[in-house]
């Protein structure tokens, strides 16, 4: 047809070098393609399965795997095996508190004690006698906020065509802010700004301002949730709660995944530090945290409380282990 190599390549959607190799020897072309398999792999299929099994959910390095299996290959070969597997990827390990068998047993006991209780709001069809027996929880926790951004690693979508973005922390003049927060189904307490060195006495003063008005308002069906920090469980604080006639919920140790306020903090962090925002002064940070806290809706709070039954089900499913929350 008188076509040039370029025109043929465009027509059949192949490269010009492919067209040239075919035209040079059209009879033996496919034989050459099938024979050109490249250098044979240094590891057998069985070796590759062993590499994948050794790496599975393990913090071992590529060199550790190579040494343990006594493989006479470089670490790039091990990396290629894991990459081809399709099931092994490098991922940052999620932080979680260390749980002992005793911790898990106590978490299961907590679930068994509270599984049958009602965590959600009162239905319009609930009778007065049922309302008196409703068991509701006021969740609470403390949170530290930094001027330069949240603790932990920061991620972004890197455009390789541009200079990398850097996360800058000031060498001097940085600061942090401690807050106490609490909420129940559809209602949140006024945010309290506290010191970084709280004592039992100062903690009781915070609770006096934050939760005593809530419990005085005929909410004796509610109980107060707090973690097992020393100032929370001190004899002084426990006596103070009894004097205020506030029931303290027995809470299992190392169980932040059971407390929905942790998810509320995460929601707040994303909004306060949106688009990598940083702050110049503590007052500026305080205003931003307070503004976003006040903007949390009742529907968002109800959704968090409504997750409690699922959290407890996961504790049972995982034999007391960590949940996905």
TrEMBL record:
InterPro entries: Homeodomain-like_sf (IPR009057), RNaseH_sf (IPR036397), Tc1-like_DDE_dom (IPR038717), Tnp_Tc3-like_HTH (IPR048703), Transposase_5 (IPR052338), WH-like_DNA-bd_sf (IPR036388). Residues 46-85 form the Transposable element Tc3 transposase-like DNA-binding HTH domain. It is found in: Nucleus. GO terms for molecular function: nucleic acid binding. Residues 136-286 form the Tc1-like transposase DDE domain. GO terms for cellular component: nucleus. This is Tc1-like transposase DDE domain-containing protein.
């Amino acid at each position: 047809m008188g076509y040039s190599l370029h025109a043929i390549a465009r027509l059949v959607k192949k490269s010009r070098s492919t067209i040239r190799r075919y035209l040079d020897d059209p009879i033996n072309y496919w034989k050459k393609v099938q024979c050109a398999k490249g250098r044979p792999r240094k590891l057998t299929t069985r070796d590759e399965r062993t590499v994948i099994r050794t790496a599975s959910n393990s913090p071992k390095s590529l060199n550790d795997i190579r040494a343990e299996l006594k493989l006479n290959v470089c670490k790039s070969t091990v990396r290629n095996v894991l990459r081809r597997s399709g099931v092994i990827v490098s991922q940052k390990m999620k932080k979680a508190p260390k749980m002992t068998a005793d911790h898990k047993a106590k978490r299961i006991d907590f679930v068994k004690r509270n599984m049958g209780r009602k965590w959600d709001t009162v239905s319009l069809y609930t009778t007065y006698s049922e309302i008196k027996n409703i068991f509701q929880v006021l969740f609470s926790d403390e949170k530290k906020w930094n001027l330069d951004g949240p603790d932990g690693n920061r991620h972004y979508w890197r455009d390789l065509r541009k200079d990398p973005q850097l996360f800058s922390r000031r060498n001097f003049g940085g600061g942090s802010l401690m807050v106490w927060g609490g909420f129940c189904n559809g209602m949140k307490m006024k945010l309290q700004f506290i010191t970084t060195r709280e004592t039992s006495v100062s903690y009781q003063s915070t609770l006096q301002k934050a939760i005593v008005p809530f419990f005085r308002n005929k909410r004796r069906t509610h109980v107060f949730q707090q973690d097992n920090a020393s100032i929370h469980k001190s004899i002084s604080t426990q006596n103070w709660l009894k004097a205020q006639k506030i029931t303290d919920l027995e809470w299992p140790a190392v169980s932040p995944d059971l407390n929905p306020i942790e998810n509320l903090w995460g929601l707040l962090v994303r909004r306060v530090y949106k688009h990598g925002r940083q702050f110049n002064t503590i007052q500026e940070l305080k205003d931003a945290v307070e503004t976003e806290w006040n903007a949390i809706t009742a529907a968002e709070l109800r959704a968090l409380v409504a997750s409690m039954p699922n959290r407890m089900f996961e504790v049972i499913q995982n034999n007391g282990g960590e949940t996905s929350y």
